[in-house]
């Protein structure tokens, strides 16, 4: 099955950019999602990228995909305290609709 | 539009009791997913349905767990008998089709004493 890895913690200062990284193993992954989970809440879809793209920008969010290296990243520009949350990378396996979630990266934004 | 609705939001029960978690998917969505989130194992897919039919239940931990989807707007996940190791947050998600983006409910926080 698919393995998805993320670093557990990231701390940034307010106003700086945050970059959250993810590696995965299934080269047939079709869509790759980023979800955000705030404390005590469910998962909120942030953005996603299709596997034939290498970049997608959506306001403060930029997703980069290196399909050769199976590496996905989420960049948050001008990080705010409201961005503090856990961010999950979730590739969807080729041929199906099962998402495999990474461990999540806890982003802490400091003043 | 209402998102995915789950109930109850919190459940505390004693070991051996039956627990039933409920989910109402987004109207018009025909795929429904049950996930479990724990500190040790992260987010795991338990089972998913397409057009009310269970497609993959390979993630269901054991026979104590069962899930049903009697119609397009309702699903249950039942644990009988419950054990302390079942304590977790259980999420339901739905998608318009089995190839589409999944939208998550707020989760049910289950504590089995």
Sum this structure up briefly.
Chain A has 111 residues and is mostly beta strands.
Task: Please provide a written account of the structure.
- The complex is a heterodimer of chains A (111) and B (113).
- In chain A, 0% of the residues lie in helices and 53% in strands.
- Chain A has no helices and ten strands.
- Chain A has strands at residues 4-6, 9-13, 18-24, 31-37, 43-50, 55-58, 61-66, 71-76, 85-91, 105-110.
- In chain A, strands 1-3-8-7-6 form a five-stranded antiparallel β-sheet, with no helix packed on it. Chain A has a five-stranded mixed β-sheet with strand order 2-10-9-4-5, with no helix packed on it.
- The termini of chain A are far apart.
- Chain B contains no helices and eleven strands.
- The mean pLDDT of chain B is 94.
- In chain B, 0% of the residues lie in helices and 55% in strands.
- Chain B has strands spanning 5-7, 10-13, 19-24, 31-38, 42-50, 53-56, 65-71, 74-79, 88-95, 103-104, 108-112.
- Chain B is mainly beta and 113 residues long.
- In chain B, strands 2, 4, 5, 6, 9, 10 and 11 form a seven-stranded mixed β-sheet that branches.
Specify the biggest β-sheet of chain B: 7 strands, mixed
Number of contiguous helices of chain B: 0
Order of helices and strands of chain A: EEEEEEEEEE
Number of helices of chain A: 0
Please identify the structural class of chain A as seen in this structure: mainly beta
Largest sheet of chain A: 5 strands, antiparallel
Order of helices and strands of chain B: EEEEEEEEEEE
Q: On the 0-100 scale, what is the average pLDDT of chain B? A: 94
* Gyration radius of chain B, rounded: 13 Å
β-strand amount of chain A? over 45%
The level of helicity of chain A is under 10%
Structural class of chain B: mainly beta
Q: What topology, given as strand order, has the largest sheet of chain A? A: 1-3-8-7-6
pLDDT < 50 runs, ≥5 residues of chain A: none
Cα radius of gyration of chain A in angstroms: 13 Å
